[in-house]
């Protein structure tokens, strides 16, 4: 954590200096720094004032001074820093670059990945003749919001180096490349194309994008384009990498080594470091609540591709920070998250350095800073399907001192640099976007401030920015009036406003040195971009907006008349004295290789893996919950190969299993396993292997429990659909199966204690059939398997329609009885009590009540205060006089994900009831939630 405090001090000084740039009286004292002085330093060099002229000025009086003070000079960390010069009551500052040093040779590190992952079949990338592993990750070319998962991909690869390396990209399919360029263009990298090979040299670590051919216009309603691209993340060589041996000696290090892992939530604590090594791909996330002094670093990848994101309730956010401080995140790549990526809320002292993000699914924000203080986000690449860099207020808390520096953005949907819409808090002050390159901005404003609440937003800086391609289509793609280049707006918003009818203000906003390379749509000769500024009224207004050397529609802005501003905007000042140069090109070192140089290359080989592994810290030992009285009888089992939807191979004589792992083993609760024989060579997803359990008589089945290998340390999914039979065919003498549940992925892994519960509509079934479908990929088992199968009746509440108090967003009460513990109900925040009534349809002798939350390690522990009452009548009202207390008064119940996130209440004696009500008066979960349950299961 030694990096954080030093960086934070420099950051605060930068922001303080920016504050001095606002409206000044001409009689205010000021310092002017001039001359030719040193602005580039190596690590740990001392301050050199030679050539610096410091002038103290008051009004028309000037004096050159030498006894000034120098503070905040810091060369302990590579990157940009700020020096502050003070004399009497005046202060000035200037930026310096801190370089790694002089680089006279080339160091190269390449990380391979296990064979269970497949490198791209579109591109082969060679660095100094050694291949990189090329990931194919989702991107979304649609420019309108949708929950539908895209089917379009981009290629991503990474490596570490210092010095100079040669890169070759070979085209592996029939895609014809006639044009290629390396971005940011400011690096001025020469590219050659020979046949199906693209070649170029890189001299500095940076996050590069190689664009192939021209963008292709689409005929879809959004009217946008598709730009083929490869993202190549060239990291600097790691300083002080952590080895497995070092981590084993330090309890404060969580080490995730090379390989493919499923961790779900990584259990980090205050004072710990999580190191994700190069060559590691992790399906998981971090949830940091009220933690301090945490470091997350390495060269590994966090992927969300296995997690669903088809509705708001489904999300797996890679990094959640709440009420935490002194957090350092460096070097990690985030691919295909199931939602947004970094969510920092009510936290402070955060440094995010050299991260890489590519998102493609709903609400795919990049870095979202919400009601935080003292934050730096730097040296990073962020491609998003929602806002890339965004600052917000939530929970009526303020934001102070946020710096986004030296970042590269590609925004497929929404804004690239955004303050708002959520501004529910007193202030947002001192936010800086500097040295930003926007490769593409396809949808909404490049730079925006949207104040939909009561915040006083001030001292916002957009400085040294290059927009390579600003190709907005807006929300209404056939129109041009919402193709915003810059948008400053104060307005009520039905989705985001939390402060009702109270609006805030926007003032002291600076746009400086902003260069635009292209702002014309394909086939158009002129730009349609608009700069909009709309205040709310005479008091809730926009004021003091400064433009200095800003390009717009092909030329620098020279007049405030070029801005569409309403009558509640005042004091727009425009200066245009220099040609905009945009974002500075940052070089990590001074390169002095000479004509001949050494290449020190290390290729770290991949671990040998048969499947995705579960680390020790992710293992769950929570017993399966009570599911009712187990259905038992004289059952038989068959395993057959499915030919068509109707023909499940029931007439096959020999079971489809392998010797030693016979299908009969699933009927015995021991260590024996059933493993199906291999798939046919020509098998497609239409092929399936049917596991059929024939009952000795009809049974009321409502739940199926499947057990995997008890000793397995692998995560493996099986795609299973459920069929059931109520009759026997008079022709074949076989059960007549019909579909009850469509195919779904079910996870078998030690993190879920290697069991799966499947709930289906109860019926009098004489047989149940599981169809294991042929799905390929790293997450799927090579062959269907089971250790043991059990059948249970349905919960007394299954399929019933609950009645509840008002609820949040999409978290409706129907989720409580749908048989899915992953979907949940949440009552309206800050509206207590939250309550739920379930009518079981008839009077029942109730003995066991199970209350669930999603069994996810990402849910922090919470205590809910719950009062439970019951009635023998069909109740629909909270205020009914028929309610009787199940227990005296409310009780506190702890939901802990390490214990399965479930409360099981066993009554000493059964109680006759038809309706039951759960009244929740408190929930201790951080973030301020209402009553929460994912499933209410009741058994006799």
Molecular shape = globular
Percentage beta strand: over 45%
Q: Identify the CATH architecture of one domain.
A: Sandwich
- How far from one another are the termini? 55 Å
Q: What is the C-alpha radius of gyration, as a whole number of Å?
A: 31 Å
- Look at the structure and give the mean pLDDT: 93
Largest sheet: 28 strands, mixed
Uncertain spans: 1-26
Give the full name of the CATH homologous superfamily of one domain: Galactose-binding domain-like
Please count the helical segments: 2
Helix proportion range: under 10%
Question: What report would you give on this structure?
Answer:
Residues 1-26 have low confidence and may be disordered. It contains 2 helices and 67 strands. It has 940 residues and is mostly beta strands. It is globular and about 100 Å long. Helices cover 2% and strands 49% of the residues. InterPro entries: Galactose-bd-like_sf, Glyco_hydro_28, Ig-like_bact, Pectin_lyas_fold, Pectin_lyase_fold/virulence. One of its GO terms (molecular function) is polygalacturonase activity. It holds the Pfam family Glyco_hydro_28. Keywords: Carbohydrate metabolism, Glycoprotein, Glycosidase, Hydrolase, Polysaccharide degradation, Repeat.
């Amino acid at each position: 954590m030694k990096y954080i405090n030093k960086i934070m001090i420099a950051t605060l000084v930068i922001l303080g200096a920016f504050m001095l740039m606002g409206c000044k009286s001409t009689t205010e004292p000021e310092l002017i720094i001039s001359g030719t002085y040193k602005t580039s330093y190596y690590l740990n060099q001392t301050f050199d004032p030679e050539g610096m002229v410091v002038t103290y000025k008051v009004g028309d009086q000037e004096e050159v001074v030498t006894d000034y003070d120098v503070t905040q000079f810091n060369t302990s960390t590579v990157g940009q820093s700020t020096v502050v010069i003070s004399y009497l009551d005046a202060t000035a500052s200037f930026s310096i670059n801190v370089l790694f040093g002089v680089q006279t040779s080339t160091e190269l590190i390449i990380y391979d990945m296990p064979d269970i992952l497949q490198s791209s079949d579109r591109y082969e990338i060679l660095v100094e003749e050694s291949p990189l592993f090329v990931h194919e990750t989702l991107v979304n070319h649609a420019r309108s919001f949708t929950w539908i998962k895209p089917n379009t991909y981009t290629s991503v690869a990474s490596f570490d180096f210092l010095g100079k390396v040669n890169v070759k990209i070979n085209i592996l399919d029939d895609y014809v490349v006639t044009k290629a360029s390396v971005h940011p263009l400011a690096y001025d990298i020469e590219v050659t194309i020979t046949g199906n090979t693209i070649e170029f040299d890189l001299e500095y670590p940076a996050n590069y994008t190689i664009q192939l051919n021209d963008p292709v216009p689409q005929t879809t309603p959004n009217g946008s384009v598709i730009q083929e691209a490869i993202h190549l993340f060239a990291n600097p060589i790691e300083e002080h990498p952590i080895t497995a041996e070092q981590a084993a000696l330090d309890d404060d290090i969580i080490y995730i080594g090379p390989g493919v892992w499923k961790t779900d939530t990584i259990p980090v604590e205050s004072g710990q470091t999580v190191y994700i090594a190069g060559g590691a791909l992790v399906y998981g996330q971090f949830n940091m609540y009220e933690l301090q002094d945490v470091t997350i670093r390495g060269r590994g990848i966090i992927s969300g591709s296995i997690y669903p994101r088809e509705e708001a309730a489904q999300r797996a956010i890679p990094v959640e920070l709440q009420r935490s401080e002194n957090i350092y995140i460096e070097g990690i790549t985030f691919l295909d998250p199931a939602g947004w990526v970094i969510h920092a809320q009510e936290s402070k002292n955060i440094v995010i350095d050299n991260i890489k993000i590519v998102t493609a699914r709903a609400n795919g924000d990049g870095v979202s800073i919400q009601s935080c203080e003292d934050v730096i986000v730097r040296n990073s690449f962020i491609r998003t399907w929602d806002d890339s860099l965004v600052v917000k207020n939530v929970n009526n808390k303020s934001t102070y001192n946020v710096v986004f520096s030296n970042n590269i953005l590609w925004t497929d949907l929404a804004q690239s640099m955004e303050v708002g819409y959520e501004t529910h808090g007193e202030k947002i002050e001192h936010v800086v976007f500097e040295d930003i390159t926007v490769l593409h901005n396809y949808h909404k404003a490049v730079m925006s401030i949207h104040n939909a609440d009561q915040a006083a937003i001030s001292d916002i800086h957009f400085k040294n920015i290059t927009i390579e391609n600003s190709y907005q289509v807006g929300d209404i793609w056939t129109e041009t009036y919402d193709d915003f280049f810059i948008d400053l707006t104060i307005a009520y918003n039905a989705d985001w406003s939390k402060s009702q009818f109270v609006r805030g203000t926007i003032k002291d906003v600076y746009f400086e040195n902003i260069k635009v390379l292209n702002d014309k749509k394909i086939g158009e000769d002129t730009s349609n971009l608009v700069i909009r500024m709309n205040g709310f009224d005479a008091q809730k207004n926009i004021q003091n907006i400064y433009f200095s050397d800003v390009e717009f529609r092909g030329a620098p802005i020279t007049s405030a008349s070029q801005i569409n501003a309403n009558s509640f905007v005042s004091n727009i000042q425009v200066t245009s004295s220099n040609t905009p140069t945009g974002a500075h090109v940052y070089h990590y070192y001074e390169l002095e290789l000479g004509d001949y140089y050494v290449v020190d290359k290390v290729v770290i080989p991949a671990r040998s893996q048969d499947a995705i592994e579960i680390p020790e810290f992710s293992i769950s030992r929570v017993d399966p919950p009570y599911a009712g009285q187990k259905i038992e009888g004289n059952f038989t089992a068959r395993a057959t190969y499915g030919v068509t939807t109707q023909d499940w191979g029931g007439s096959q004589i020999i079971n489809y299993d392998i010797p030693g792992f016979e299908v009969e083993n699933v009927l015995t609760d021991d260590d024996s396993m059933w493993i199906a024989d291999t798939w046919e060579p020509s098998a497609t997803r239409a092929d399936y292997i049917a596991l059929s359990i024939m009952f000795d008589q009809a049974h009321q089945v409502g739940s199926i429990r499947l057990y995997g290998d008890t000793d397995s340390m692998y995560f493996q999914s099986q795609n299973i659909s459920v069929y059931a039979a109520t009759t026997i065919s008079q022709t074949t003498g076989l059960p007549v199966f019909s579909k009850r549940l469509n195919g779904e992925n079910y996870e078998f892994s030690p993190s879920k204690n290697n069991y799966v519960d499947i709930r289906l509509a109860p019926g009098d079934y004489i047989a149940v059939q599981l169809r294991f479908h042929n799905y390929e990929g790293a997450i799927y088992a090579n062959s269907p398997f089971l250790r043991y199968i059990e059948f249970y009746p349905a919960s007394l509440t299954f399929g019933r329609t609950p009645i509840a108090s008002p609820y949040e967003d999409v978290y409706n009460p129907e989720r409580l009885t749908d048989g899915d513990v992953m979907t949940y109900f949440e009552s309206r925040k800050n509206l207590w009590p939250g309550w739920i009534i379930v009518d079981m349809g008839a009077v029942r002798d109730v003995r066991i009540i199970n209350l669930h939350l999603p069994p996810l390690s990402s849910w922090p522990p919470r205590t809910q205060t719950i009062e439970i009452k019951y009635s023998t009548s069909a109740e629909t009202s909270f205020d009914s006089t028929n309610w009787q207390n199940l227990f005296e008064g409310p009780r506190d119940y702890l939901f802990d994900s390490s214990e399965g996130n479930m409360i099981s209440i066993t009554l000493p004696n059964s109680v006759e009831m038809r309706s039951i009500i759960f009244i929740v008066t408190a929930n201790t979960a951080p973030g301020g939630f209402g009553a929460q349950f994912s499933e209410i299961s009741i058994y006799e």
